[in-house]
Amino acid sequence: MRAPSFWWQEQTIAAALLSPAAGVYGAVAAARLRQTGERAGVPVLCVGNPTLGGSGKTPTALALARLLIDAGKRPFLLSRGYGGRLDGPVRVDPQHHRADDVGDEPLLLARCAPTIIAHDRVAGARFARAAGASAIVLDDGFQNPSLAKDLSLLVIDGRRGVGNDLVFPAGPLRAPLTAQLDRAQALLTIGDGPSAAAVESAAVLRGLSLFRGALVPDAASVAALRSSRVLAFAGIGDPEKFFATLSDAAIDVAIRRGFADHHRFTAVDAKSLLAEADRAGLSLVTTEKDFVRLAHRRALAVLAERSRVLPVALKIDDEDRFRRFVLAPLAAARS
Question: Which domains does the chain have, with CATH numbers?
Answer without folding.
Answer: 5-215+315-334 (3.40.50.300), 219-310 (3.40.50)
